[in-house]
Amino acid sequence: MNNNQHQHGEKIGVYVCHCGTNIAGTVDVVQVVEALSSEPTVVVSREYKFMCSEPGQEMIIKDIQDYHLDRVVVASCSPLMHEPTFRRACQKAGLNPYLFHMVNIREQCSWVHKDREKATQKAIALVRAAVRRVVFQEPLEKVKVPINPSTLIVGGGIAGIQAALEIADSGNKVYLVEKESTIGGKMAKFDKTFPTLDCAACILTPKMVSVAQHPNIDLLAFSEVEEVEGSMGNFTVRIRKKARYVKDNCTSCGNCSQACPVKVPNPFEENLSLRSAIFKSFPQAIPNTYVIDKENRPPCRETCPIGQEAAGYIALAAQGRFEEAARLIREQNPLPIVCGRVCYHPCESECNRALVDEPLAIKNLKRFIIDWELAHGGPHLPQPPEQKKEKVAIIGSGPAGLVCAHDLALQGYRPTIFEKLPVAGGMLAVGIPEYRLPKNLLQQEIEGIKKLGVTIQTNMALGQDFNLEDLFQQEFKAVFIATGAHRSLKMNIPGEDSFQGVYHGVDFLRAVNLKQPQPVGEKVAVIGGGNTAIDAARTALRLGAQEVTILYRRTRKEMPAEEAEIIAAEKEGVKIEYLTAPTEVLGEKGQVTGLKCIRMELGEPDSSGRRRPLPIEGSDHNRQFDTVIIAVSQSPEIDFAQGQKALKLSKWQTIVVNPETLETDWPGVFAGGDVVTGPDAVITAMSDGRRAAEAIDKYLQGEPLENFRSHRSKKLAPRTKEDRPHRFAPPFKDTPKAPRIRMKELDPQERRTNFAEVELGFTEDEAIQEASRCLNCGICVECHACERVCEAQAIDHRMRDEIIEVKVGQILIATGYQTMDTRPLVPYGYGRFPEVYSSLEFERLVNSAGPTGGRIVMKNGQEPKSIAILHCVGSRDINHHPYCSRVCCMYALKFAHLIKDRTKAEVYQFYIDMRSFGKGYEEFYSRILEEDVKVIRGKVAEVTSLSFNGHHQLLVRCEDTLAKKYREIPVDMVILCNAIEPQEDAEKIQRLFSISRSPDGFFLEKHPKLDPTSTATDGVYLAGCCQAPKDIPDTVAQASSAAARILANIARGEIEIEPIQAEINPDLCAGCRLCVSLCPYGAINYLEDKGISQINEALCKGCGTCVSACPSGV
Fold first, then answer.
1. pTM (two decimals)
2. Domains of the chain by start residue, with CATH
3. CA 45 to chain centroid
């Protein structure tokens, strides 16, 4: 004790605790007291065996009063344990509790040093520093704030359920958030609970039902916390409610799941069985509502210009459900016959199956399905709704016009199509040869659209027979221009217009399709490399040409025509000469006789991305031909636009429109298809027709032209063979290969003499086989089969995620655990041998509601005769998890009992130490021993395979440490008691709620003894296995404890906010943001506008981390 006369302004008392022998056993406490006595500001310096005891506190109180102390320093154990204790003592003596400072000489000295002298000197230095620091502390007052009585619980396992019910039963609001589609957690997967062998479902299910029915609990299943703001008493939490795609009026009848054609591994059953894309995890699931698993949109759908759900009709076709598949196609595609034959199938270009072997034959499958429908009762056309009064004109009956008319008819309009040609169909009718698209099938497509109430007037040319003003005078309220690109482009070379026998591609094909004579000679040259050139060449063969040669100025690689069409032409005898360009048409007596050509070479890429062809000087040569077809491209016929000032034209002589709405500058006039884009694909024009129909409807209904539902194709991120189609599937590189089914064709020599359709289609077996190659990318393929069988009309594929905001006073984290993936532990054989099971897999195997109905059988369906259970797989292992998972010994014994109860198998338990620590556990262990379970003490070295006489078994190799010998035991099945480990999203949860994690990854409690449910962040609590491995009784007890802490705070109505906080001097802050990144509580924000950091006082705990790191040095 120091009784020196105080000569300074401060009067400080120093108190050093022995803490029994915890401190005094290493630190010379008396020496510390004597050393501090010499400090000029220290009035009194004492030591005591247990300073935290009542006599120790009374000593401090008496000294404060007797010596009029204005500062106190206590050197003892952790401030987490006793700082509040000593603050209360100071306050009781009349001293402001924040004029007190505590030094942790137990954890920083006695626990970490063996050298007594060094530990003592360090203690002296720490206490002396505290004495000098406490001089600068100021009196502070706690602020009381009201507490919101609502509570957020994150995690719907048994811990979250228990806490939610206890808090809600007290009359307080609870928001229970669970990321899975049902509450119940891991316990819902268990069959029995140890040591009483009660039915897990019988314990859990009533609690789950109580949660669902409780008026004070808002159950937010299939939801995740996205953002947390505020502090204890007043948290604002934003939660993402993921779309279930099934409404709450679901009756849980299960018809949807039976109708779903997609099957994926069932994660609730630990992938031991399959489930549908629409599912309910287990019969007692809460909420009692199905959910649709939509991971990603399939690439075939994303790249299709009209958003056709190809994966949907393919999945139905794989099951032979062709009628349903056809209905689905027609729901989204007004021209399926056309698309099944002439679409350039961008879906196949992006098909993920190409990363395995070859793309799926999506176009061919569509064709088969629609052909099957035509052969089995014809198309099932929708009934148009009640007619709307507004009149709509569509100019052009090509793919854009037909689709626009179809979609408008289904919205209640009765549009009129005006077509220049004598036949309907536009380029479909006159630009595509009949051997690709039979005219009778196209006519069926058009007749189906007319049946919806669409009128088509042929021989009506815009600009000749009528103009746009005429249409508006006839009370048409909107016009869609879709006149296509029917004008052939010329090469503008000498002789092009001088001789007979020279045709242009689109004009040539139009004449042939309209049955107009187009005589061709024996030797035909076709100039160009696109689909028009290929079609013209193949048509010339069918008209009698003996030799057809395509001249193309680039190479095969740059040829824009479809590869399949090029191959078909070559099979029929068409020759293709690359890097050749005509420079002049030659002729005599008015008849073409040949071409003057020049050789080309490729230079740098041009605006199209293809390498520019450059003429080779001196390579001119003449070629003999008696017919020349120039098929280099085509453009829109826009003569009707002359004098129409409101129709703006581009430099390419196409109509300029708003690319999103397809509006022209003329109000009420829209345009799309090739007249806007220039020559493009059929499916692209169809996309414009669909967008135009939606835009016109919005326009006529007075709605803003925005938020369109119609699809636009998307550019997809690149994928590699390491990726996978969905989370349940293997990587593409590991997916079994299956050859693509080739569609049969007419013999090339036969077909070149007529216009019969070349491709013959699939058989039913071929279609099913090809459709079965689909990888079901994204899981749900949106076939809508579930929608068709749902009597409650609860399916809603248009649902979207919803962000909700809740305000709560306190938060409980109960996110549970996951079991270790033991595949990296190669010697144990998991993932290599089918009869090696994880603990949760076996839980489902023995569960009466599991994949085998509780029968313990192997993958071959036979009952095992011997089973090995391996303890501590990944636990108590310095290479993986050094901690004990605590429950493994007991559930291993439970497994042994269940096996003995249900089979005649021999059971071997391989353990390191049997830890039967809980109530009734040792008795349960004794009971298992009486059931003739073989218990072997020793760590298993290896599980390998064993074969003899065609019989396959597993061989367990281990050291029996009690018998002191090496053993090899053949078994039929192995069960691994794999380690409990933190959830995969533990780091995300840690950041969200500003809590800490221990080195093993579990969330860190405030103190393991004094405060095991709290975290370092006030108002955030822990329960269950997210804090550490524990069994169900301990989990429930901790959940109840956390609920009691929360309810105690609610009962007080207000809480005290710790006043010790950091401050930032704005004049010194350089805006380096170092403090922002280091703050463990997320309490520092960076102000972009001011360039400095700012403390969030509601979150700051005054820990000083930022102060020690600040480079300002102040």
1. 0.87
2. 12-141 (3.40.50), 151-242+807-815+983-1057 (3.50.50.60), 244-292+793-798 (no CATH), 295-380+717-781 (1.10.1060), 381-472+653-710 (3.50.50.60), 487-635 (3.50.50.60), 819-982 (3.50.50.60), 1060-1114 (3.30.70.20)
3. 63
